[in-house]
Amino acid sequence: MNNPKTGRWALWLSFPLAVLLVIASGAGVFLPSVYANEPHLAGAGAVSADLMNLIVVVPVLIASAIFTLRGWMGARLVWMSTVLYVVYAFIYYTLSVRYNALFLIYCAVQGLSFYMLVGALGSISVGEIARRYRRRGPAFAAAVLLLVIVAGASVHWAQRAIAVVQSGKAPQDVLDAGQITDVAAVLDLAFVLPAFALTAVLLLMRRPMGFVLGPIILSFTGMIALLLVAIVAVLVDRGLAADYSGIAVSGGIAVIAGALLALFLRPVPKEA
Amino acid sequence: MNTANSGRWAVWLSFPLAVLLAVACLGGLVDASVYARESRLLAAQGIGGDAGNLLITTPLLVLTAWLALRGSLVARLVWMGVLVDLIYNYLYCALALPFNALFPLYCGVLALSFYALAGGLPSLAADDVASRAAPRAPVKTVAVVLLLMSLGTAAHWMQEIVPAAIGRRVPQSVIDSGLLSAPVAALDLAFMMPASVIAAVLLWRRKSAGFVLGPVLLTFLALGSLVLAVMGVAMARSGIEAGRALVAIGAGIAAVAGWLLWRMLPRS
Predict the structure, then answer these.
(1) Neighbours of A183 (CB within 10 A)
(2) Tens digits of residue pLDDT in A199-224
């Protein structure tokens, strides 16, 4: 329900969450000691995520919380996707970044964002959101985008799985990054891809829940794609990648997801 | 709410989940290469965890799913607790353990547990559960136990993390484990400890959601402690001294949590 009085506590927690994010990511960007024990690739990945947090996530989190508190339904969906992104990103920080002085802050961000999301779930009215976006939302195009991503990622992970089974070892890029397991594969296979597929199916069937999940997943997709853009940019900057060619696909997905999200959330013209 | 008819698809996921879980546990027990890269302690805990999940968690998952499909509210609550336990354990296995041949199964167990729980939650009406709670349910006792448990967990981790932070070093347990970070501390501090505090507060204030969260967390605690006791047996068999103490601690906590769970579950 887009009642600003519902789930307000979760929205207000956005502000301490933003402070914690600025501390964690600011330290990651400006204090070299934080990622001193990381191999080059993993360190670059962590700094990319920090830049993403500082430049995109914190401003969007604050802005969407404020607009939601003022009663804008679309902002609530963007806010939920931003918090979802924080939950996702901080699984990396808590489990995949080598233990450092910020560990407790990572745990605090992880826990706070997770319980904000859970707390906010009870405050949305599926029926009301579906009524608003069902007629005008680009459901088919969004479903196609999500299914294309699911198909592409499935092929990617299947190829890696075959290579892993044949060699009996972790993928080489995981070992090169100094990781002990394939965290991206876990998050994609266990959480993200099933959510994308489920949302696409619900949108194609024009089920009310699809019109809630659709904008949230589109916004989340845009953020993940922007994170990949940031990773390529940092890798090139540090001489760990040759050029910016890796940006094309991620940047394209970010633009398409952003455009579809804007179409979903565009204001409804007042009836005469 | 109609527990027999809502969210049935989520409950049905339990059966493929049980198959994946059993295969993953058997793999850990029979294939020596699975835990070959881990320290002796983590390998013994892994084998014990597999044995516990195969002998206790898998049958309990199937039984509670079957009873939940027949309309049992009690089974539905315990089933959700089993899923929370699986998500906790397999987040650790999939994200923190060194990569091994069972990795795809870990992802499968994690995904099915998560989506079964997410799909099963909306069909459970907290008001209905609260209205059917036993009149003499030990609500405040459970609230205190959950609160003490969360405080104990926090104290346990802080006594290691805070001195390490002050000394600007990595905690010894992280170094000994050979892992990158402190995954169990992260799962406890970020997820389980806040959940226990929230459940304790809700139960103390007799809010409906507390009557759902309480039994779910007690199931998690009882089941997790039982599996911990089995881990202790595996550790003792590997010659690790702390194994016997772990058996006693795990069995003791499981007995208390199981008794409180029995008293908390709805009666009609």
Answers:
(1) 19
(2) 999 999 999 999 999 999 999 999 99
Rounded to an integer, what distance in angstroms lies between the CA atom of residue B158 and that of residue B180?
18
Please say whether the beta carbons of A146 and A197 come within 8 A: yes
Domain boundaries, given as residue ranges, for chain B: 8-264
Question: Can you tell me the distance from the alpha carbon of B265 to that of B96, in angstroms, rounded to the nearest whole number?
Answer: 34
| pLDDT recorded at residue B2 | 43
For the four alpha carbons of B223, B224, B225 and B227, in that order, the dihedral sign comes to positive
- Nearest Cα to A44, choosing from A28, A21, A20? A28
Contact, B105 vs B24, CB < 8 A? yes
* Minimum Cα–Cα distance from A198: chain B residue: B115
pLDDT digits (tens, 9 = 90+) for A85-119: 999 999 999 988 999 999 999 999 999 999 999 98
**Sign of the four-CA dihedral A133, A136, A140, A142:** negative
Q: Which of A3, A190, A10 is nearest to A83 (CA)?
A: A10
CA distances (Å), origin B132, targets A72, B56, B205, B268: 38, 28, 17, 6
Contact (Cβ atoms closer than 8 angstroms) between residue A233 and residue A247: yes
Token pair, residue A43, equals 């360190």
Tens of pLDDT along B60-82?
999 999 999 999 999 999 999 99
Cα(B264)–Cα(B216) distance, integer angstroms = 10
Query: Which residues of chain B lie closer than 8 angstroms to A94, CB-CB?
Result: 181, 183, 186, 190
Backbone dihedral angles phi then psi of residue B96, each to the nearest 5 degrees: -115, -25
Residue A186: name the closest of B101, B111, B38 by CA.
B111
Query: Residue A248 burial (CB < 10 Å; 0-12/13-18/19+)?
Result: exposed
For the cut 50, the answer to whether the pLDDT of residue B10 exceeds it is yes
Question: Which of B181, B183, B194 lies closest to A115 in CB terms?
Answer: B194
Q: How many residues does chain A have?
A: 272
Q: Can you list the alpha helix ranges (DSSP code H) found in chain A?
A: 8-12, 14-30, 40-52, 58-69, 73-95, 103-121, 126-133, 139-167, 172-176, 183-186, 193-204, 208-237, 247-265
Main-chain phi, psi angles of B125, to 5 degrees? -90, 115
CB of B155 within 8 Å of a chain A CB? The answer is no
Flag whether residue A191 sits within 8 Å of chain B, measured between CB atoms.
yes
Tell me the residue length of chain B.
268
Token pair for A133: 């976006």
The answer to whether A265 and A218 are in contact (CB under 8 A) is: no
Q: Are B219 and B205 in contact (CB under 8 A)?
A: no
Tell me if A161 and B104 make a contact (CB, 8 A cut-off): yes
